[in-house]
Amino acid sequence: MDRLIIHGGRPLRGSVEASGAKNAALPLLAASILVDGQVSYHRVPHLRDIATMMSLLVYQGAKVAVDDHNRLHIDSRPANQPEAPYDLVKTMRASALVLGPLLSRFGKARVSLPGGCAIGARPIDMHLKGLEAMGAAITVENGYVNASAPYGLTGSRICFDRVTVTGTENLMMAAVLAHGETVLENASQEPEVVNLAEMLRPLGADIAGDGTSTITIRGVDALHGGTAEVIPDRIETATYLAAGLITGGDVMVTDTDDRMLEAFLSHLREAGATVEVHAGTIRCYAKQPLKGTDVRTMPHPGFPTDLQAQFMALMTLAQGSSTIRETIFENRFMHVQELVRLGANIQLNGNTALVRGVEYLSAAPVMATDLRASASLVLAALAAEGSTEISRIYHIDRGYERIEEKLGKLGAEVERRSGSNHMLTGGDFG
Ligand code: EPU
């Protein structure tokens, strides 16, 4: 299993470019199933989860190619296998994103249920209820969701019990070629949902209201081929800004978009950081130690759960205390005990962590448990005195492109050591 060795204590300085967003790219790739033509994708990040989605599309019969300019071309017209097998879904929950598109296109789909996950139970019941409201017959047997709608899906009014990002994306994709109008209420307002609508509209889809809590989709007969551009990764952007701050450095992230990170940046300002935003770049530094700042995770435009662990790492070295409340996932605190191993003072009480700032962190062997937890350990290790070894680093490879190279560019000393017993198991999967 690969490990990262981080020699901490060096202030990170300089600029680094944001990659395309994993969580935006995944639904965009799944949407190719709906398209009667080829889609050419720009800015798809090189990540393990993306490779998994590509394998899934290839398994279904799509033609997938990468050109010399790093563009990905997908032609799903030859696809003839409306199935997502367990072996692929268990390594990436987002594989469930193919359910809506497969059902819409083939009138049937067989998709493995994702199962549990390191950060919470993460059921997909709202995806299934929404598809049933659109006329699908759904059974769950032998670990698989079997969905059928032989006469096509029909538009419906669907109100989500709570905000779900991939649920909104799945139903939006299912509705694009359905008969009539679908209205999604209490829909996710996440930028990744907007990116999906922005991909589909120029291909012929009729979607309005994305970016608000009510999205209206009027079914059309077909979508034609075209291009799609993945938005910058807001979580990666924020992680590098946090890396600058936690090491007392000064980092600028380029090719990004501050409008997707307002809640995070306003919490940084509240903590005493200087945040400078200019035409697709964000720069952060602090003239004095950060102050303890409270955070509560919420759906967009609130503070993202995918940055909770990284913000907690920052707060471990802040002056005073911070209360960090997780409201999206019930078990997203696996990083707490690992941060404590590095010297942090954190007390957990239900869904709330009380972080009391300490003077310094010190190196220790720690273990990554899920993607964003690993990012918080990288941040803490960058600030810690000594050399920290982070094992099970495959988690981070699911969501951070070329992380050693990017951190190295900012002056960090990071090495990857390979081991032979690389293991992929079911578990946390974004
Ligand atoms: N939920 C249900 N039933 C459902 C769907 C969701 O109860 O049918 C619950 C979930 O268990 C959770 C809450 O609703 O408690 C919100 O979950 P959501 O469906 O929004 O999460 P998701 O779509 O599975 C995406 C991201 C996650 C990110 C969450 C929240 C992708 C591929 N994944 O997951 O990203 O944390 O939204 O913003 O877009 C990550 O990148 O590390 C990651 C975990």
Outline the structure in words:
- By secondary structure, the protein is an alpha/beta fold.
- The protein folds into two domains: 3-18 and 233-417, Enolpyruvate transferase domain (UDP-n-acetylglucosamine1-carboxyvinyl-transferase, Chain); 22-229, UDP-n-acetylglucosamine1-carboxyvinyl-transferase, Chain (Alpha-beta prism).
- α1 runs parallel beside α7, α6 (165-176) packs parallel to α7 and α10 packs parallel to α12 (371-383).
- It contains 14 helices and 24 strands.
- Residues 421-430 have low confidence and may be disordered.
- β20 and β21 (352-356) form a beta hairpin.
- The chain has a four-stranded mixed β-sheet. A four-stranded mixed β-sheet has the order 2-15-17-16.
- It has helices spanning 22-30, 48-60, 86-89, 99-106, 125-133, 165-176, 191-200, 234-246, 262-270, 308-315, 335-341, 371-383, 394-397, 403-409; strands at residues 3-7, 13-17, 35-42, 63-66, 72-75, 83-84, 108-112, 137-141, 144-148, 157-159, 181-185, 206-208, 214-218, 223-229, 250-254, 274-278, 281-285, 295-296, 321-325, 345-349, 352-356, 366-367, 387-391, 413-417.
- The protein is 29% helix and 26% strand.
- Bound molecules: uridine-diphosphate-2(N-acetylglucosaminyl) butyric acid.
- Uridine-diphosphate-2(N-acetylglucosaminyl) butyric acid is lined by residues 23, 26, 94, 120-127, 162, 164-167, 192, 305-306, 328-329, 371-372, 399, 430.
